[in-house]
Amino acid sequence: MFKSKIVLAASLLVIPSFLMVSCGSAPTEEPQSVETESVQPDAEETEVTAEDESATDQADSMEDADEDSDGETADSLWEMIEASRNEAISSGAKNACPAMFDAAENEYNRLKDSDDKDSAEYKAALAELNKLYMALKALADAKSKKSRIDELDFSSYDQKNYDAGSDLIEELSADDSVNMPRASWVEKAFDADAKMSAVLIAGWRAKAKDARSEAILAQKDSNSVKCYISRKDEYKSCQDTLKSGDQKYVTGDPEGAFNDYSSAKEGFAKMFTEVSEARARAQKAVDEAKKRVEESQNTAVQADIEKPLGDEPVEGIEDEDAVLLEEDDFSEAQEADAEMAETSEELEEAEDELESAADEFEKKEAEKAAAAAEEAVQEAQ
């Protein structure tokens, strides 16, 4: 049983390490409040019908055109006409309604060449020309908005205004629309643009509401795994984006609100996925560690049952009084010393004999050298 306790204690030390690596150290305190939903814009205060918006936008455009021309000099009116004309050209008015654009250009050239530039009639004509260029731009914008509505499939969000605006665009784009009373043409062009704007707004509002609901759900998911603690900065950024969407929705920018809500949703969902996966990995490691602990514990318990430790001899473990080595009388070492002594004496005798032989050899060589020298002397004499 002692063995099983050791195995269990050692294995349990692994579990906290897995948790710390996978999840990170948790803060000591959870934030006092975590905002899960921003304030939803009040529908009664912020939403009006598309028809109301269409009428309002049309009236505003007409009033702006009239107010801009009131009390202006001919020179200032020409500056306004040049600006309106350039905007109409940039918006594609020439292609949106070629016949009416050509009619406006003819009037432009006629008034440019007029000699009567100081009369009230002349300034009134300039004001009407300015409104015509503004209306041409409005028609071009209405056509562009209709194309985008069709691309986004938004028509069903305000079918009434879409159908009415489409009819106006078709009517004003025809070549024979140039025969229509100028004031009526201008009014209908502004109306077409306002109706298409209303359809776009209705579509983006609906999309923004759906996107906000999805963002809130994603935020709640991230809260369930406490992302506001482990991913504090990232969480706050998503929360700020969600609030920004609310602000844009209230101030009349539903498309911008949709983009912010979608971005917040993606951010919350990303955090939730990453933290959930990290937790799952940590939990798997913990489960595997627990399983190993249980297996080790079971193995140790089974070993204690099958072969318990007691007083019986155990293979591999010697008795306390067991003689592990035989006693040595050192006789072999003494014999080895004697043999080494004899060998040493023999070596010394051999060295003496070698030195004697060397001396004898040197003596004989010296005698031979002396005899040879004496013989050489005699021959020289």
Concise summary:
With 381 residues, the chain is mainly alpha-helical.
How do the helices and strands line up, and which of them pair or pack?
Elements: H1 2-12, H2 14-23, H3 43-46, H4 50-69, H5 74-91, H6 93-96, H7 98-112, H8 120-152, H9 159-173, H10 182-224, H11 227-230, H12 232-250, H13 254-306, H14 331-380
Report on this structure.
This protein has about 375 residues and is mainly α. The protein has 14 helices and no strands. It starts with a helix and ends with a helix. The model is unreliable at about 1-50 (pLDDT under 50).
Structure keywords:
mainly alpha, 381 residues
* Average pLDDT over all residues: 79
Structural class: mainly alpha
Helix residue percentage: over 70%
Radius of gyration, whole Å: 54 Å
Into which percentage range does the β-strand content fall?
A: under 5%
Low-confidence stretches: 1-48
**Element-level helix/strand string:** HHHHHHHHHHHHHH
